[in-house]
Amino acid sequence: xxxxxxxxxxxxxxxxxxxxxxxxxxxxxxxxxxxxxxxxxxxxxxxxxxxxxxxxxxxxxxxxxxxxxxxxxxxxxxxxxxxxxxxxxxxxxxxxxxxxxxxxxxxxxxxxxxxxxxxxxxxxxxxxxxxxxxxxxxxxxxxxxxxxxxxxxxxxxxxxxxxxxxxxxxxxxxxxxxxxxxxxxxxxxxxxxxxxxxxxxxxxxxxxxxxxxxxxxxxxxxxxxxxxxxxxxxxxxxxxxxxxxxxxxxxxxxxxxxxxxxxxxxxxxxxxxxxxxxxxxxxxxxxxxxxxxxxxxxxxxx
Length: 302
Ligand code: SF4
Ligand code: SF4
Known about the structure:
binds iron/sulfur cluster
């Protein structure tokens, strides 16, 4: 089975869809791609590219003439956008979402997983190990796994948690060595829907709490501080900072901040007006955090 994605970000006119697909078929030396996804959809790309250029009709034509087998999309945005995209087309066959035991309320989240499945879409899960971070947890989290029976590696537990859920059709986990392939295969062999008992599910509650205790800024991502008059995306900036600290992964957090947060939405755009401070439901003095966030994440990684 072959799967690849339409580079929605590179489509500037309707014809680009077929041009890109043609190039992909040529490079893959095939005349048929089984699973074809609109890449990285969110509200903006959905409206400004997919709907604007009527790309769903083009995908249908490609399916009709056999260039592709199944039409789906991968997703990076918040739940409301996910629901809009699922509801916006009645012939989606599958979708791909970021999902793991820490991302249950982030992006599509558990709500999105269940919604898509209820609408008949197969759901492919990406980032089950959060880019590898969940395979290398901080010491406080590792300790919780170490104290639990049966003994499993943090990566194994994280994969089992995803496979445990009936709405998950497929799990994608990046592997960079033969050993990881073997470990993931062994983990998959042991997996089953609803195979985790109540005690195992409580383990994940403890692990989530441990991550929460390690989080320097108690932001719940509620969004009540928004909108910022200067355009700063406050929750996203705070989350990126928290991720850097909790996972001890400055490199990824800087990459995310500098590459995926629009310049005008970064903490660097904060003018210190302090309008947001009294609005925060958690009493966070946001204006004081913004310069710290930019100092940490705006710097170049050595
Ligand atoms: S203090 Fe900064 S982040 Fe808060 S509302 Fe003003 S400009 Fe936006
Ligand atoms: S109001 Fe406070 S807790 Fe809610 S998103 Fe804004 S900073 Fe985070």
